[in-house]
Amino acid sequence: MWSRLVRRRALISLRNQSTTTTRNQIQRRTLVSAPKPGDGPLMERRPDRELPSITGFRWARTLPIFVVLIAASSVAIFNYQKLSSPVVASTLYALRTNEKAREYLGDEIYFKHQIPWISGQMNQLRGRIDIRFPVKGTRNTAVMRFASFRPTPKGVFETTEWSLERPDGTKLDLLDGEDPFKAISAFPMDEDEREEQTRGFRQQLK
Q1: Which of 20, 72, 86, 138 is most buried by its number of CB atoms within 10 A?
Q2: What does the longest C-alpha to C-alpha distance in the chain come to?
Q3: What is the pLDDT of residues 151-199, one digit of tens each?
Q4: Concatenated DSSP letters for the chain?
Q5: β-sheet bridge partners, residue 141
Q6: Are residues 107 and 137 in contact, defined by beta-carbon separation less than 8 angstroms?
Q7: Sign (positive/negative) of CA torsion 13, 15, 19, 25?
């Protein structure tokens, strides 16, 4: 009876050892190295091919560049929106027809730089306009400032300042008691401001 038990235990231990040896042989199977950059095309698929190593993407280097590009694009878009506004075109046309401006700047009055920078606030929907941008002529250069506001939503824009700032810091007042924009009830709005005004009118109807 005792000998049978010993034999059974010996057989069980031998089976366990053979199973462990087989598993180790399977796990120790040699793998084919993964293809490297520059190697030729793979002509066959092998299940024992080693997977290539994954290199992590370095966000620390590219994220600041991406943020700077997005910020620069946003600034350029907002500046282009101001530049294409009818307010800038109207003030530039009035500057060309003004006697004082022509006397100081000369002829061919236009933006000073090839890519003009319009600084200041331009919100026709709320009735606040305060912009400035460099201009030039055949004689001199200056910075034109135009400020206007609308007292009531249905009122008329009133010009508070329209002047030229010389390079030495002195100002040349172009209003001289007369407002060339007084006859204009409202400056034409661009598409974004017109859409916002329409949306606000629809909300009031609701």
Answers
A1: 86
A2: 129
A3: 887 778 888 888 999 999 899 988 876 677 765 544 454 555 445 444 4
A4: -HHHHHHHHHHHHHHHHHHHHHHHHHHT---BPPP-TT-----S--TTBPPPPPPPP-HHHHHHHHHHHHHHHHHHHHHHHHHTSHHHHHHHHHHHH-HHHHHHH-SS-EESSSS---EEEEETTTTEEEEEEEEE-SS-EEEEEEEEE-SSTTS--EEEEEEEE-TTS-EEES-TT--TTTT-SSPPP-HHHHHHHHHHHHHHH-
A5: 136
A6: yes
A7: positive
Q: Which residues contact 166 (CB under 8 A, 6 or more apart)?
A: 104, 140, 142, 172
pTM (predicted TM-score): 0.59
Q: Which residue has the tokens 């190593």?
A: 53
Contact indicator for 163, 143 with CB cutoff of 8 Å: no
> Percentage of the chain with pLDDT > 90?
23
